[in-house]
Write a structure and sequence with these properties.
The structure holds 2 protein chains of 2 kinds. The longest helix of chain A has 36 residues. Helix content of chain A is 52%, strand content 11%. In chain B, 47% of the residues lie in helices and 13% in strands. In chain B, helix 1 packs parallel to helix 3. The chains are: A alpha+beta, B alpha+beta. The interface between A and B is large, with 57 and 53 residues.
């Protein structure tokens, strides 16, 4: 057992971190509100291997595993990098051009259908829509979508459209593949949440060290320190459970993959949501303004929370597998 | 990121599992909690069996009679013993987990030869004399004095939370040997034989209604100077050494037991009915169990992460505080769920109608002590925010 990052994994992590720190620094993020998805930036992410990471080398991919993919997605989460990142990654090898970033793919999980409105992310910017349904995976040509743009999406970096009727599209894979993609998507969304939990904890601590009230940094007050400690605990638990799920996914002999992913989902989403809220609280009045970063993280956590099933569903999955 | 155990680990697991399957059912049930002599026989009897089979002191160096297991073997040991529901470490706790390791790290050769084999064989029971009525979270403020008189220390003071004080043969005792030095620099670590004149032990019943705790009044107790461990006035550092020896595995067995208990809750919920359905058919209960199990999974992963880190660097970091805080608080929520599931059956401390009220209630009440003992949750949050996050100390 060596449950630490290998040298290659550390290099991968720091490479993608410096790329994101440079290209998605907070000043740039604000500018991206007007156009969150530029083809050039999407291709750049593709060149970094974000979409082709787990595609076998024979198919032009990087040939790495889920353990590496969660590292990369945690970094994307730290910088609230916009774009249909999850779906374009899941489409690599399934939709031609997705791995290289030439084809931009968004998606919808319809395996647990409800009468909730169909809200499609990036409908106006994509080439194809991937739909996970109980009978399999469907690919819809984006030109067939009749989508009404939502003027004010919750996450200013995730444009949304309302689609009243979903075209049938082409069935490109069966139900097992749909379930598998949902599992992979859930884990990668958990990794994005890990990034949110990490960054909001760091932002809050940095802010508390600088902000002075009563003639001293608010970071010296126990009331603030204890909240920060709780944020740190949530971040550490989120990281461990996501990494463990990644390693278990790659080698199912070490555990129950379905439970590992469900546990990651439950712990990381809660960490992201609670840390983002606490970050706003510690920023005080400034945390409630648009110009400060915390709200972007809270809003992205909401988007991710509603991408693949619910937290309640994940909790029930774990309960069913409690003896496995 | 590699979570696989080695073939050697798995071989160790098979042997241990086989031994536990044969021995655990043969060991008698725990005697009533007030029957100290019987409890001593029960607890130390199991320790003796572990010793004879070569499993005592799994993480103690082989040269001192331990197994000298690798970190992963140690993890396997905790996994298997928790799953086999072995007898609780009980009154072996202070010797095996605290006093013994400190003697290994800092004791003289004579102290090692005198105490270590006897602790491992269950022939010596230790208690802890650290806390005092006015030195709890601020342990270094302790006031018990030890004044050198020839080749003895003359000790006076009042200790509290002295677990197993009534039955112990030795006490790991913190005393102030230099009252004029800064508080962390005037403390010494002594091994006090409990049969010396001047030691009065008074039981201190806990909210459990049992007297595992005691108060200890020390009046002119003459402790031979060779009972000093390490150097005089170096006791604070020595106390912290013990924590390092734990190598981050301190909570391993407890986390496994927590996971086991959640599984047990699901079994129990299948037996209990509410409104003509079993409790397990209640979605909200299943979700709560699943949620708690997710957090337990995360804790277990975090422990493996920290363990692998220690394997590389050899030094346990302050990450132990993160684990202690998260585990002890989750532990309370899990056993609280157990009591809610029992409902009115949990109003009885005795088992009623085949429901495990005695154990669940005992464990639930015990969880309330773990967020206080060994650095309260509030102290852990201070440690995390100051030493990990670099936040300034509160003016004191």
């Amino acid at each position: 057992m060596d449950f630490q990052l290998t040298e290659d994994q550390q290099a991968l992590q720091s490479g993608i971190r410096s790329f994101c720190d440079d290209r998605y620094a907070f000043e740039n993020i604000v500018a991206l509100e007007k156009a969150p998805l530029e083809r050039e930036r999407h291709r750049e992410l593709a060149e970094m291997g974000v979409f082709s990471l787990r595609l076998p080398e024979a198919q032009g991919g990087v040939g790495l595993g889920m353990a590496e993919a969660v590292l990369v997605f945690a970094e994307l989460g730290r910088r609230v990098v916009p774009g249909p990142l999850l779906w374009s990654h899941l489409s690599a090898g399934l939709v031609p051009g997705a791995a290289t970033g030439e084809t931009i793919v968004s998606g919808l999980d319809r395996t647990h259908a409800s009468n909730a409105p169909l809200l499609v992310e990036y409908a106006g910017e994509i080439d194809a829509l991937l739909v996970l349904a109980n009978d399999g995976v469907h690919r819809i040509d984006a030109r067939q979508l009749r989508a009404e743009r939502i003027e004010m999406p919750l996450d200013p970096l995730t444009p949304l459209s309302h689609v009243r009727e979903l075209p049938q599209g082409e069935r490109i894979a069966g139900p097992e593949q749909a379930a598998q993609l949902r599992l992979e998507g859930t884990l990668l969304a958990s990794a994005l949440c890990l990034g949110i939990a990490e960054m909001t904890a760091e932002l809050a601590v940095d802010y508390a060290k600088k902000r002075e009230q009563f003639d001293r940094p608010i970071a010296s007050f126990q009331a603030i320190k204890h909240f920060a400690a709780d944020m740190h605990v949530r971040q550490e638990m989120a990281r461990a459970v996501v990494y463990a799920a990644g390693a278990t996914f790659d080698d199912p002999s070490v555990g129950d993959v379905a439970r590992a992913v469900a546990s990651a989902r439950v712990v990381t989403f809660e960490a992201a949501m609670k840390n983002a809220r606490m970050c706003i609280q510690i920023y005080g009045g400034m945390g409630y303004t648009w110009e400060m970063p915390p709200h972007y993280y809270l809003k992205r956590a909401f988007v991710l929370e509603n991408t693949f099933g619910s937290g309640d569903e994940a909790c029930e999955t774990i309960a069913e597998r409690i003896d496995v | 990121m590699d979570l696989r155990y080695t073939e050697a680990d798995e071989k160790f697991r098979r042997e241990l599992r086989g031994w536990l399957a044969a021995e655990v059912p043969k060991h008698p049930k725990p005697p009533p909690r007030h029957d100290w002599p019987a409890r001593r026989v029960h607890d130390t009897g199991w320790q003796k069996k572990l010793f004879d089979a070569g499993y005592a002191g799994v993480n103690w160096p082989a040269e001192y009679g331990g197994r000298g297991a690798t970190l992963t073997e140690e993890l396997v040991y905790y996994e298997e013993t928790a799953r086999a529901h072995v007898p609780y470490i009980g009154m072996n706790f202070v010797g095996i987990r605290h006093g013994g390791p400190t003697v290994i790290a800092e004791g003289s050769e004579l102290q090692k030869k005198t105490h270590l084999p006897r602790i491992l064989r269950g022939e010596e029971v230790w208690c802890q004399g650290f806390s005092e009525p006015s030195a709890g979270s601020d342990l270094a403020a302790l006031k018990t004095t030890a004044v050198r008189d020839g080749d003895h220390y003359v000790v006076n003071g009042h200790k509290i939370w002295t677990s197993f004080g009534q039955i112990a043969d030795y006490c790991e005792l913190l005393v102030r040997t230099n009252p004029s030095a800064p508080k962390h620099r005037g403390i010494s670590w002594l091994i006090m034989p409990m049969n010396l004149p001047g030691i009065e032990v008074r039981p201190l019943p806990t909210l459990q209604g049992e007297s595992d705790f005691a108060e200890m009044f020390l009046t002119d107790v003459r402790i031979p100077a060779e009972q000093l461990v390490g150097k005089e006035n170096d006791g604070w550092r020595i106390t912290n050494v013990t924590l390092r020896f734990e190598r981050g595995t301190a909570w391993a067995a407890d986390i496994i037991e927590l996971k086991e208990f959640l599984s047990e809750v699901s079994q129990l919920a299948r037996k209990l009915t509410r409104d003509d359905a079993t409790a397990w058919e209640d979605k909200s209960l299943r979700r709560e169990v699943g949620h708690l199990a997710a957090e337990a999974d995360a804790l277990w992963a975090l422990m493996k992460w920290q363990l692998s880190e220690i394997q590389k660097t050899g030094i346990p970091g302050v990450g132990g505080s993160t684990l202690k805080l998260a585990f002890t608080e989750l532990n309370q929520r899990v056993y609280e769920l157990g009591t809610r599931l029992l409902g009115r059956a949990g109003l009885s401390r005795d088992d009623v109608a085949g429901l495990p009220a005695e154990r669940v209630l005992h464990r639930f009440l015990q969880t309330l002590s773990l967020t206080i003992a060994a650095g309260s949750s509030q102290v852990q949050r201070n440690i995390i925010s100051e030493r990990i996050l670099g936040m300034p100390k509160e003016p004191r």
